[in-house]
Each structure stands twice: as structure tokens, then as C-alpha cells.
Amino acid sequence: DGFLNPRETISFLACAVQMFLSFAMAGTECVLLSMMAFDRYLAICNPLRYPVVMSKAAYVPMAASSWAIGGAASVAHTTLTIQLPFCGDNIINHFTCEILAVLKLACADISINVISMGVTNVIFLGVPILFISFSYVFIIATILRIPSAEGRKKAFSTCSAHLTVVVIFYGTLFFMYGKPKSKDALGADEQDLSDKLIPLFYGVVTPMLNPII
């Protein structure tokens, strides 16, 4: 009826809620960072059009759609995960009910989960990274055409915080979700310390850096 970690017990429902919230926030952050790149692109490459394009009528739907997309993906993955049969001691060797950690407890084939995770990786990792990369190609080209060193420095500083968060956030996500892991042959309790610590970066550190951007 529930899962355990080495220190406390969590109900199946509470675990499902944790899975949903953590995945939804990560997915939302993926989309938001790509939209922030578009914001930086407009601010540097088309500054005169920026107030018109990035009006309230534009950025409110952009933010809302980010949450909607992240939430929808999280519902799909959480639903697929909670439908799996679980057996054994149901001990999660993780700080939270992270989806990859819960999948290791499944007593059934998780091929569908792995395939769906791969599709999600393309949507939430591949597509945003391409969009951000193309945005920064134009941004860097524009910055290099600025005649004054002070102007170039100011423009680079505008993007530095966003670029730092992009590297940290997507780097840790690629490490965790780029190759979804099936259940360990040595048992569900076996899990690297890095698999526990890395989610703290994309789940805690990068959202805290958003206000700085």
C-alpha cells in the first residue's frame, strides 16, 4: 500500500503526487527556459520591437502553456508508472519518489515507460535545446556586431544568467533521463549516489535561479 525509504514510509498516493509534481516542474522548466531564450533573442536582436512582442498578452499565454505542457506530460508518465505492479519491500533508495527510482521497483516489463520517456526526451530536451541553440547563434552574431566593448559586455551580461541555468539544468537532465534505466540486475536497492544528488540541481537549484534571470 505504500513505499519505504530508509527513514520513513510514504503512501502510494503521496508517492504518485510527488512523481507528478517533480516531473511537471521539470517539464515546465524545460519549456520556460526555451521561451526565456526567445525573450533574450528579442531583447538583443530586436530591442525596438521587444515591448510590442513581449507584451502581457504574449508572455502570460507563454507561461501558461509551459505549465500546461509540463503538466500533461507528467500526467501521462505518472499514470503509466502507477499502473505497474510492484513487489518486494518497495524500498525507494532516493530522497523523493522520483519516477526513475520508482520504476526500478516494478515487477513487470517497463518497455512502454522507457519508450515514452524517450519520446518525452525529444520533446522536452531535444527540441528546446535546438531552439535555444539557434536563438544564441543569432544573439552572439548580433553581439559581435556591437562596436563598443562596453556594449558587448552589457549584452553578454544580459544572457549570462540564463545561459548558466540552461547548462546546469539541461546537463543534469540529460544525465538522468537521456538513457532511462531499467530495473537493476543487482536489485532495486542499488543506486548511485549521483542519481540522488543530481535531481537536486534540476529540482531545487535551477528553479531558485529563475528570479536572477
TrEMBL record:
The residues that cross the membrane are: 12-38, 58-80, 122-144, 156-177
- Location within or outside the cell: Cell membrane
Q: Where is the G-protein coupled receptors family 1 profile domain?
A: 1-213
Classification via InterPro entries: GPCR_Rhodpsn, GPCR_Rhodpsn_7TM, Olfact_rcpt
Primary localization: membrane
Instruction: Give the way it sits in the membrane.
Output: Multi-pass membrane protein
The entry's keywords = Cell membrane, G-protein coupled receptor, Membrane, Olfaction, Receptor, Sensory transduction, Transducer, Transmembrane, Transmembrane helix
The answer to whether UniProt assigns keyword Cell membrane to this entry is yes
Q: Name one Pfam family in it.
A: 7tm_4
Q: Which GO terms describe its cellular component?
A: plasma membrane
Is Magnesium among this UniProt entry's keywords?
no
Coiled-coil boundaries: none
Query: GO MF terms on file?
Result: G protein-coupled receptor activity; olfactory receptor activity
Summary of the function given for this chain in its UniProt record: Putative odorant or sperm cell receptor.
Matches recorded under PANTHER family: OLFACTORY RECEPTOR (PTHR26453)
What is the protein's name according to its record? Answer: Olfactory receptor family 13
Give the species: Taphozous nudiventris (Naked-rumped tomb bat)
Its gene name is OR13
